[in-house]
C-alpha cells in the first residue's frame, strides 16, 4: 500500500511539473531585457497584426517601450563603453548605499523601510538591465 501511494505521489508531481513547463512566462520589461529574442518576436507579431506604436495593445506597447529603452542603452554603450561601465559602477554604489540605509532603518524600526526597499529593488533592476546590455555585446 505504501509503495502504491508513493508511486501515485510521483505521478502527480510529474504531471504537475510537466504542466508548469507549458506555462508561458509573464512578459515584463525585465523579462524582455533578459530575453531579447522574445522581445524581437513579440514586436514582429505586433507588426504582423498591422499595429503601430500608437495602436499597440498593452503587451505590444510594453515591448515597444522596452525596445526603445534597450536601443538607447545600446547606443550609449557603443558611444562610450567606459562611461557605460562607470554608469554601472555608480548604480552599484548607489544600491550598496541603499542596502546599508535599509539595514540601519530596519534596525531602528524606522517607518520608511518600504520606500527604501522599493528604491533598492529599482536600483538592482537598473543594474541588471545595464549588465544585460553589456552581455549583448560581450559573449563570455
Relevant terms:
mainly alpha, 6 helices, 2 domains, 140 residues, single chain
Task: Characterise this structure.
The structure is a single chain. By secondary structure, this protein is mainly α. Helices cover 81% and strands 0% of the residues. Mean pLDDT is 82; it is low at 3-23.
Please state the structural category: mainly alpha
Percent range of helical residues: over 70%
pLDDT averaged residue by residue:
82
Low-confidence stretches: 3-23
Kindly give the count of domains: 2
In short:
The protein is mainly α. It contains 6 helices and no strands.
List the SSEs and their pairings.
Layout: H1 2-21, H2 29-34, H3 36-48, H4 58-79, H5 81-107, H6 113-137
